[in-house]
Amino acid sequence: MTTDVLIVGSGPAGASAALFLATYGTQALLVTKYGRLSDTPRAHITNQRTMEALRDAGLEERLMREATPWESMGNTTFCTSLAGEELGRIPSWGTDTVRHADYELQSPCTMLDAPQTITEPILVQAAQERGARVRFDTEYVSHVLEDDGVTTTVRDRLTGTEYTIRSKYLIGADGARSKVAADLDLPFEGPGAVAGALSIIFEADLSRFVAHRPSVLYWMLQPGAEKEGVGLGVLRMIKPWTEWMLMWGYEVAAGPPELTDEVVRELAVQLVGSDDFEMRVKSRSPWTVNHHFATTIARGRVFCAGDAVHRHPPTNGLGSNTSIQDAYNLAWKLAHVVAGTAAPSLLDSYDAERAPIARQIVERANQSIADTGKIISALDLEHTEAEALERQLALWKSPGPEGEKIRAAVREAIAYKAYEFDAHGVEHNQRYASSAVVPDGTPMPEYRRDPELYAQPTTWPGAKLPHTWVTADGHRVSTLDLVGRGRFSVVTGIGGAAWLDAARALGEEFGLDITGVSIGPGEQFEDPYGTWADLREIEDGGVLLVRPDLYVAARHLSSPSSPADAHGWLRDALGAVLGRTA
Questions:
Q1: Rounded to 5 degrees, what are φ and ψ at 444?
Q2: Fewer CB under 10 Å: which end of the chain, C or N?
Q3: Cβ–Cβ under 8 Å, residues 13 and 38
Q4: What is residue 546's three-state secondary structure?
Q5: How confident is the prediction along the chain (582 residues), in pLDDT tens digits per residue?
């Protein structure tokens, strides 16, 4: 068998890589050792940046029809059990009135709660509809990297037959136990497995406990809850309010307990705080909380993405989002190299751009577990033994200076969890530095607010193009919808006609379809709110060169001195990004 790109793994990274490549017209073959797509909901928080990528691929509305909507993601609640004491809540994922405007200003997309059981079928089906091939029950065995391609050996798990697949490039998206990453001998940092956790998925109508405080996550302060796992016991909503995932820690060194029906029921009753409910267990499994990231994520013609190179707990909801964004970054580059419109050196920018993100999100997710300990400390507890916990909770409710001190500390500790549940900057403030970005000589703008909590749009090269609403024939359209679709774009305004002419000429020269965008009064797109003029950071006649992944590749602040100047600057910038410099 032959293909342009072979993808190993059908999780968020692999499925989205197949989707984006097929969308761009690149031949892709996806293989997975499993006989079906994910049958457990695992990753679920779907952030705005991921939704922007899926919007660009034409799947936003399809996903929104199936997922739990933004408004139902609501609070994160901290309590002793669903029926027990509530210590407090924190508005999450931009649903708070104070933060909601930040989210709406940053993106045309909402956040969603979309478990993998929803996202994977949508991604894979769309990839197949667009020409990608998919083979189930096909296990990666090994690969041989050669100068002109990759020869991969796979095994048909139904027949035991081994055969080879010849591809120009290989993507290892085969999860936290990635054999592709192991065969590449990628360098990893971090302590590895740091805790053990149990996931039990069950159906039960718990609406009477939670409908008045809708949330994705309910965190339980129970005796022993802080010792392993993700810091506390958790009930996670999968379908409101009838399907749930229970998470509880175990000592990773001792290994997981046997998850008998009795053990499962006991844990569920403990976290619900009542035995007055019926439940049907759908699955039960142990897993490890990891702190592990690759410092190099590609070698030669082989690239790794997703959990293969960033392994971390589900805190902050960064897992599938970062995986899909890895694929979004890589796919357009592979598509252009395979098509011959870019030099192979463009692919070096994948490692340069995404390896630092792997480190960042692994560190952030693990820090969020540590931050959960602030709630226990606020109660003046070292450990959550039953008697001590009961005593401190009583003190928390009592009058007097000691109780007041504890109440203030608990409020502060819960509010601090915004770094997990409202880390808008972590999701949007990713800045790239690589050969696929042309600096303009200006320093990166300083952050005006906390860069983990607050997104700060900029057109500085290496940042994502800012979103705002402009109009076409009076109808509102996002600036992000004017670019993308697998194409490079030039964005200018009044006085920038030379940039558009240069883009047309260079499109023919480079064999590209370059989108020309002009925003201003009387132009193709108008700026009636004046918000684009506030965000663009260039003069009317300046220009932004925008990559297919909606990132600013280069920027010229002012009008060109002549058509020849416009053609020369844009040619140099585009050539530098594509690796086609003279």
A1: -60, 135
A2: C
A3: no
A4: strand
A5: 999 999 999 999 999 999 999 999 999 999 999 999 998 888 999 999 999 999 999 999 999 999 999 988 989 999 999 999 999 999 999 999 999 999 999 999 999 999 999 999 999 999 999 999 999 999 999 999 999 999 999 999 999 999 999 999 999 999 999 999 999 999 999 999 999 999 999 999 999 999 888 889 999 999 988 888 998 999 999 999 999 999 999 998 889 999 999 999 999 999 999 999 999 999 999 999 999 999 999 999 999 999 999 999 999 999 999 999 999 999 999 999 999 999 999 999 999 999 999 999 999 999 999 999 999 999 999 888 899 999 999 999 999 999 999 999 999 999 999 999 999 999 999 999 999 999 999 999 999 999 999 999 999 999 999 999 999 999 999 999 999 999 999 999 999 999 999 999 999 999 999 999 999 999 999 999 999 999 999 999 999 999 999 999 999 999 999 999 999 999 999 999 999 985
SS (H, E, C) 393-452: HHHHCCCCHHHHHHHHHHHHHHHHCHHHHCCHHHHHCCCCCCCCCCCCCCCCCCCCCCCC
The alpha-carbon radius of gyration of the chain (Å, integer) is 25
Q: What length is written for the chain?
A: 582
pTM above 0.90, yes or no: yes
Per-position b or e across 207-237, b if 16+ CB within 10 A of its CB: eebbeeebbbbbbbbbbebbebbbbbbbbbb
Asked whether the beta carbons of 460 and 454 are under 8 A apart, the reply is no
Nearest to 47 by CA among 103, 116, 122: 103
* Torsion sign over Cα 153, 155, 156, 160: positive
DSSP codes of every residue in 25-84:
T--EEEE-SSSSS--S----EE-HHHHHHHHHTT-HHHHHHHSBPGGGTBEEEEESSTTS
